[in-house]
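// run 5 | inverse folding | seed 20
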């Protein structure tokens, strides 16, 4: 079992249909050592198979084992800014949102213990880059949520996010406008509860 095996499984996926993602995810879930290979392939940004690796990475983090990303947080948080393909950025933006949700969850969890300020700063910086560059609606939506959460801890984030939403995002698609308005309401609610 190696990176070549994982690559072969990814190459055999015709499309991102649920059953295809589940099939490859189950292979990785059956042998956790393959997860490291999946992360490596995801950040092989010149290679189109990285898109499929990102789909599986998100599937595992979202549906099964978010904690499996923990040993790879440094690589994940520093390399997401290098992603080129839209179809790889979307699943990684979703993983950022999952990490932010877990970090601010009421219950104690490993994400809270292992997600460092350095990881968060990298995720936030990339998130703002994603908001100021042309991205799909899903990337914008996940990223606004992620930045909202980390803004609960870092004072400067909410004013920047608010400015971006009001001057740019709210003038984009209906989906961006709706999520932008929702995030603005959340920021206002947080400001009112803090004052």
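// decoded
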């Amino acid at each position: 079992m190696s990176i070549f095996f994982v690559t072969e499984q990814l190459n055999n996926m015709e499309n991102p249909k649920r059953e295809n993602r589940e099939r490859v995810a189950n292979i990785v879930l059956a042998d956790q050592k393959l997860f490291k290979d999946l992360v490596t392939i995801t950040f092989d940004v010149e290679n189109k198979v990285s898109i499929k690796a990102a789909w599986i990475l998100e599937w595992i983090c979202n549906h099964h084992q978010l904690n499996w990303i923990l040993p790879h947080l440094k690589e994940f948080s520093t390399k997401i800014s290098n992603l080129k393909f839209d179809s790889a950025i979307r699943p990684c933006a979703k993983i950022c949102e999952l990490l932010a949700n877990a970090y601010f969850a009421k219950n104690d969890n490993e994400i809270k213990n292992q997600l460092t300020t350095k990881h968060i700063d990298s995720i936030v910086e990339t998130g703002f880059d994603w908001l100021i560059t042309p991205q799909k609606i899903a990337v914008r939506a996940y990223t606004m949520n992620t930045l909202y959460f980390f803004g609960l801890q870092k004072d400067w984030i909410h004013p920047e996010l608010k400015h971006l939403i009001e001057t740019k995002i709210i003038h984009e698609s209906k989906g961006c406008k709706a999520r932008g308005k929702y995030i603005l309401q959340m920021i206002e609610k947080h400001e009112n509860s803090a004052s």
